[in-house]
Structure formats: C-alpha cells, structure tokens
TrEMBL record:
Belongs to the peptidase S14 family. Tetradecamer that assembles into a two heptameric rings with a central cavity. Pfam families: CLP_protease. The lineage of its organism: Eukaryota, Metazoa, Ecdysozoa, Arthropoda, Hexapoda. It comes from Sitophilus oryzae (Rice weevil). The gene is LOC115887590. It catalyses: Hydrolysis of proteins to small peptides in the presence of ATP and magnesium. alpha-casein is the usual test substrate. In the absence of ATP, only oligopeptides shorter than five residues are hydrolyzed (such as succinyl-Leu-Tyr-|-NHMec, and Leu-Tyr-Leu-|-Tyr-Trp, in which cleavage of the -Tyr-|-Leu- and -Tyr-|-Trp bonds also occurs). Gene3D superfamilies: 2-enoyl-CoA Hydratase, Chain A, domain 1. This is ATP-dependent Clp protease proteolytic subunit. It comes from the Eukaryota.
Length: 254
C-alpha cells in the first residue's frame, strides 16, 4: 500500500528489507548451455533476459526498480521493435520506485507485454495496466488489487500539513494514471480506489486493467508467443497527455 515513511527514516533499511536481491545465491537455479564453444552457465534470470523476459518479483523499492529499469533500457538497445515480456508477482512498494519503472515502460520503444503471476497489488497493478494495450495478461488464479495511498507521518504541524498535501497530490496523479490505462471514468476510478479493491483476473479485465486471462497456451496464444521473436513496427505516442509527471515523494510507498 501507499505508506508514509518519516523523513529521517533510513532508506537503506527499506531497500534491504524489500530487496529480492538478497535472495541467497544457492536458491537461484543455474542453467547450463552447450554450444560448439563449450558450456556456459547462466543464472535463470539472466537466461530469461536473453529471451527478453523480465521478472519483477517481490516488493517494489529502489533496488528492484533500478534493476528493472536497467533491463528495460538494455533490451531496448538490443532491439527497438521486439516485444519485452514483464512477469510481475508483487504486493506493491515505494511510489517513486514504481513510477520510475512506469515512466521507463512508457519511454522505451519496444512494446511491453505484462503478465500477472501470483499477485499484482497496489503499485504492481498499475505497472500491470501500463503494459501495451492488447498485451496485458494474467494467469487465471492470480489476484489483483487497487487502492488509494495511505500512511502516517510525525513531526511539527506544518511538516504534517506538507506531507498530507503531497499524498493528496499523489492520490490524484495515481487516479489519473489508472483512468488513462483503463479508459474508465475518473469518478469510477476514484470510487474503486477508495479502499482495498481485490479483483479476479476476469473482474480486472472488465475494469480495464488487463486484456487477456491466459488459462493455457492455445494455438492463438502460441502464435502470439512465437511472434515475440519477430520484429514488429511500433511507435510510442509521445503526446504530452501520455507523459505523466513524477512527483518527488520518496516518503510514500504503495
């Protein structure tokens, strides 16, 4: 959820507690590839990256955001036309970290296909919805949740007022982003985000967060997957309406 962290809270603690990077290396599978030049070992995430697959797993923070942004930019440098597939299983996280990923997804030239695996809650649901239209997917037993910012702050009355005004600005910004990607009226978006709103994939599809519920790779889906290997013509809409400003609110998390 959106949460307010006191200004003097050590952000290094947030990164350490939220980071999937701290996963013990022996828990990460290693893939061995054989070629005419011999054998080469990859950790599973690096091997998937070769196939233009990004795994965004766990809470969203500055560490996971930096890694995801770097992978998006790298894959764009490899090909500006081949699709990128982003698999998301996240309860949400820090707003600015998530918006950094969001802005990069909108900035890069390749279409970004998003996949909800397990759960996409809070900020993760926004990233799920921010994928290229027609390429936003969920597995059938995943759950998706949207809600408004929340949190708390301590300090002098003036400081509390500043933080309160900032979180209200963030709330409006997030609502407008959901409106943009779901094509829902802003009034309905505001009502839907007022409290924790859990959805099944089918409900999320009706709301406009996703386009497809993928139960099994049908022949059509197989063609879609194989199409990821082909270059396609794709141009981002660079209109100012599609470029939302990022509010510098490091103390809020989603």
């Amino acid at each position: 959820m959106f949460k307010v962290v006191p200004p003097n809270f050590p952000l290094s603690n947030v990164s350490k507690s939220f980071s999937m990077i701290n996963l013990p290396f022996h828990h990460v599978p290693i893939v061995i590839e054989q070629s005419g030049k011999g054998e080469r070992a990859f950790d599973i995430y690096s091997r998937l990256l070769k196939e233009r697959i990004i795994c965004l797993m766990g809470p969203i923070n500055d560490v996971t955001s930096s890694v995801t942004i770097a992978q998006l930019l790298y894959l764009q440098s490899e090909s500006a036309t081949k699709p990128i597939h982003m698999y998301i299983n996240s309860p949400g996280g820090v707003i600015t970290s998530g918006l950094g990923i969001y802005d990069t997804m909108q900035y890069v030239l390749p279409p970004v296909s998003t996949w909800c695996v397990g759960q996409c809650c809070s900020m993760a649901s926004l990233l799920l919805a921010a994928g290229t239209k027609g390429m936003r997917n969920s597995l059938p037993n995943a759950r998706i949740m949207i809600h408004q910012p929340s949190g708390g702050v301590t300090g002098q009355a003036t400081d509390i007022k500043i933080q309160a005004e900032e979180i209200l600005k963030i709330k409006q910004q997030i609502n407008k982003l959901y409106e943009k990607h779901t094509n829902m009226p802003l009034e309905k978006v505001e009502i839907s985000l007022e409290r924790d709103n859990f959805m099944t994939p089918e409900e999320a599809k009706k709301f406009g967060l996703i386009d497809n519920v993928m139960c099994a790779p049908t022949e059509t889906n197989k063609e879609t997957i194989s199409g990821a290997e082909k270059e396609i013509n794709y141009t981002k809409n660079e209109s100012p309406e599609n470029k939302q400003p990022v509010v510098n609110a490091r103390s809020f998390v989603l």
